[in-house]
Design brief:
Shape: elongated
Structural class: mainly alpha
Radius of gyration: 19 Å
Largest sheet: none
């Protein structure tokens, strides 16, 4: 992992009333990164690093996966690795410097929200009600066939991936609790030609969040 690529620093927070609670600060952070508003994102970062650093790093993982995704997988991987290593951060520049550097780079990165959009469509679109119900009766082998079938829609393949890995691991609004295996999902992805560096990001992501983006990112990469 490379060390800092810029000289960003967190601003001093002179007026905490601008961000009256952690929820607003977290929402501000994500929306500012999404819009490329580095100044606002760094203010929210400074607030969260001071008040709730663990919340900051959890949210940064979600932001990287949800808002940047396949547009910059190398940066996403850096966020995933750095977020889970507090001792390493302390020994290699410090918490604030890493937070400022990664947030600045996320603001400037290209964005791709397809991994998130695919989850929402698969989970909630009314036209997929039949598949959401029918796939529950499929065997693991049948679900793997759906995932590998290039003639299937993206949403159907995402649904199959979700059921292979299990909704207990990545909860859904419209799907019942179901056991599964993320390792099995990665095995299928490997078999259909997704390269190791993409699977590595998905694997790291699966250890850092229970949001479903790690299960869709390899498929979105393949279809892109």
């Amino acid at each position: 992992m490379q060390l800092f690529t810029n000289s960003s620093r967190l601003p001093a927070i002179r007026n905490l009333s601008l961000l009256p609670d952690n929820w607003l600060a977290t929402s501000t952070l994500q929306k500012a990164i999404r819009r490329g508003d580095t100044e606002t994102a760094l203010v929210a970062t400074a607030y969260l690093i001071e008040k709730q650093p663990a919340r900051f790093w959890r949210r940064l993982v979600v932001i990287a996966l949800e808002d940047v995704g396949i547009a910059d997988l190398r940066l996403v991987e850096e966020v995933l690795l750095t977020s889970g290593r507090p001792s390493w951060r302390a020994e290699h520049g410090g918490e604030e410097q890493w937070a400022a550097d990664l947030v600045t780079r996320l603001c400037g990165a290209e964005k791709n929200r397809d991994a998130c959009d695919a989850l929402v469509i698969a989970d909630l679109h009314p036209d997929l009600a039949r598949q959401r119900s029918g796939f529950l009766d499929y065997s693991g082998y049948q679900l793997c066939e759906v995932l590998a079938d290039r003639d299937r829609s993206i949403a159907e393949r995402v649904l199959a991936a979700w059921m292979i890995t299990g909704t207990k691991r990545f909860p859904a609004f419209s799907l019942p609790d179901r056991d599964g295996s993320f390792s099995e999902l990665l095995t299928v992805y490997d078999a259909i030609g997704i390269p190791p560096e993409v699977l590595k990001v998905a694997r790291y992501g699966s250890t850092r969040t229970n949001e479903g983006h790690p299960l869709t990112i390899p498929l979105i990469w393949l279809l892109s």
